[in-house]
Amino acid sequence: MYCELANKLVVEAKRTEQLNSRNNARTTLPVHNDELVRNVLKEVTQLKKNLEFFKEQQDIMSTEGISVDSNVMKCQYFVNLLCLERNKRCLLGYQKLRSDMLDSMAWENNGMDVMGSNLGEENSNLTHQEQEYLKKYSELITEMKSGELTDIDLSGSLIPPKEVFIDVRVLKDAGEIQTEYGVFNLIKDSQFFVRQSDVERLIQQGFLQKI
Amino acid sequence: MSLPGRLQETFSPEEVQFIVENQKIKIFPRITTSKKRGGDSSRNNNNNNTDNEDMSRWRMLTMDGRALENMIVMKSTEVTLWLALLLKQQSKCNIIIPEWLTIKGLDLMLQYEKRNIERFSALPWDWLVVSEILFKQAADDFNDPIYELRNRIQDLKEIRQMKVLQGLKNLNESHMQLDNLGLLEINELRPFIVRVMDKLRQIHASGIDTTETENQDYDDDNDIGMGTMISSDRDASSSIPPNAMSF
Amino acid sequence: MDVDIEDILAELNTDSTAVDYSGNNNPLSDIANTNVSTLYNSSYPDDKNIPTNKNPPGVRSNTKISAEQDYSSLMTLWRNERCSPELLPYPHHLMSRMLMRIQDQLERLEIISMDFMGQNSNTIDNSNKPINNNNMLPLLCMEAELERIKFIIRSYIRCRLSKIDKFSLYLRQIEQDSNLKSLDDLLSKDEMIYYQRHSEMILKLFNDTTLKHLPPELQAINDTTGTISMIDEPDWNKFVFIKVIGPNDKMLNSDPLLKKDSNNKFFYEVIIPELEEDVELFIDSIYVMRYNVIKNLLLDGKVILI
């Protein structure tokens, strides 16, 4: 049946969307379904041929004066046209969802070039055009960050700041760190009151623990 | 997407708290910042660093910095909640618990809620968030036992939720009035209410469309069509007296 | 001496075009002075006086604008933007004042903390909590505050960008239908660049992957002749939660749109055209209402979205 393939594309896009809306985890994209897209495009070509055929038939019959049930003809033509339009919508919908996800990825990556980063393996899921797009969009983000909004850190966290300053305990010796508030000597088991953004890294790396 | 999908429908709980934290609250400072008292400004002159005075000044961008520059120990003043919490965390102030967040205040609200089945009591719009924050971060500033207060907040939450559930059957395609519903309550209900009412609106609109074409196709005398049915239905649901909780 | 080097610096910084002069009737000589107080004096501690006006270009405001007021307006704008189905106008003046204050504050904080570093360098060894002294307290609060302002602007702009993306074809239609001017009011300069460049690259992606493989008559991205229009418009009738707050100046009697009921309570009367129904929106009340019905009240700052 016409449009069945396109429907598969939509279902796939829907699944991707659901997977990504579930939590705060990083956005991921499954492999681009080249084959399905190609097959839908083939169907489009077929539908286009059908339309031309119907049109021809109608012309022939009307010139030869054969009385035709024009309603049946019109209906066939119309159904084919609708399928054609629908296929277009599905193809674009699929690509639009993927580009939305690419946008999310670019923001999550602070507009850095995703290509060179550790996201490399995920990128094999992208088509050549998508990689190109992602690169350009990342550049655009970088540009937006450095404009008049340069103090804002546009790609920063969308979770409201809660505790700007926190108490931390040192789990492992980490030497001295320099912050705006002076030098801290991070000796095991000592405690500090510091700005969270200054030590985020050290917490992630397991040197410090939030109390 | 430059804004994650989950934030496009409603605010996150963290964002609701962020909004509420901009409200004012009264505190008793435990420090004095006012230069007028305790030593005049000339005191700074014997400090070799002339910028020192400048450094201890508060120049705030979201509130009147003068309230902070003029703090006097145990003399109540008003600051935004997030700042009060920061001062509290530094043991620099005590928070004055608002009147409504006492056993007496909450009991009054509970009474109202029980007596008025169709209305919500006039709790502040941020009651759920503020009570939760203060229980957690200013527990020692309460005079009433916190567990008693918690119980009452829970009771209020439940009784209001019951009303909300009761009111859901009044959802319609026109509008609703929801006075005194709190921000957190609204935020939690929003996706559901908006989705249902949007659907009802679409159904209603398509109903009108069909009746209009039907009326054109058939006898124009046929006035008691679908459209009239629906609109009279709606009239019934929206004919609740003004100001009543039509929810 | 009371002269503060920071104030002089601020004065120099603020003597730029970014400040909203529209309400300033003072002679030129006053401007620098006014600006400093505009930037830093929270001379309107009265909460109720805060205009929710987005201060669209051309609208005159006769009150001095305090930092506190601006922040409060920004908060409202952020919440409105998040809740409204359409992209709302960009508050050009408000944002440039905001950004300027942030830049100023950042510089100030840097100077202060550098100073502290110098002071504390000798005592660091015996004090593991250099922040925990009273002199540090203002700095701490200002830092925390700055993070909050940065967050709200970030979230606000990111929300706007997502709408610009969502309605890029619709914006293009506006751009073509009317003169370019309207889009300039709607978007900031940076947003305009974003809109143009992003729609360009997305169109290229669609072209390369899909459109160019379709029959020529189906290659348009903004086709409105098919069974379904491809241009996504905002859902104008989407239901939103509103709170009615009345005119900015709180002068209820002088707002011609306000009516009084038998209990002397003020309300705005609105009409839901689709239902041919009149609704009374009372001051301070909360409603769920179709966006289109309250759109004008929203743009005038007489209702807010919650």
TrEMBL record, chain A:
One of its GO terms (cellular component) is GINS complex. Keywords: DNA replication, Nucleus. Residues 59-146 form the GINS subunit domain. The keyword Nucleus applies. The keyword Nucleus applies. Signal peptide: none annotated. Residues 162-210 form the DNA replication complex GINS protein PSF1 C-terminal domain. Component of the GINS complex. This is DNA replication complex GINS protein PSF1. It comes from Maudiozyma saulgeensis.
Automatic annotation (TrEMBL), chain B:
GO terms for cellular component: GINS complex. Residues 100-204 form the GINS subunit domain. InterPro entries: GINS_A, GINS_bundle-like_dom_sf, GINS_Psf2, PSF2_N. SUPFAM superfamilies: GINS helical bundle-like, PriA/YqbF domain. Belongs to the GINS2/PSF2 family. Component of the GINS complex. This is DNA replication complex GINS protein PSF2. The lineage of its organism: Eukaryota, Fungi, Dikarya, Ascomycota, Saccharomycotina.
From TrEMBL, chain C:
It holds the Pfam family Sld5. One of its GO terms (cellular component) is GINS complex. Residues 234-306 form the DNA replication complex GINS protein SLD5 C-terminal domain. It is found in: Nucleus. Keywords: DNA replication, Nucleus. SUPFAM superfamilies: GINS helical bundle-like, PriA/YqbF domain. Belongs to the GINS4/SLD5 family. The GINS complex plays an essential role in the initiation of DNA replication. Residues 128-208 form the GINS subunit domain. The keyword Ribonucleoprotein does not apply. Signal peptide: none annotated. It comes from Maudiozyma saulgeensis. This is DNA replication complex GINS protein SLD5. Its main location: nucleus. One of its GO terms (biological process) is double-strand break repair via break-induced replication. The keyword Lipid metabolism does not apply. InterPro entries: GINS_A, GINS_bundle-like_dom_sf, GINS_Sld5, SLD5_C, Sld5_GINS_A. It comes from the Eukaryota. PANTHER family: DNA REPLICATION COMPLEX GINS PROTEIN SLD5, SLD5 PROTEIN.
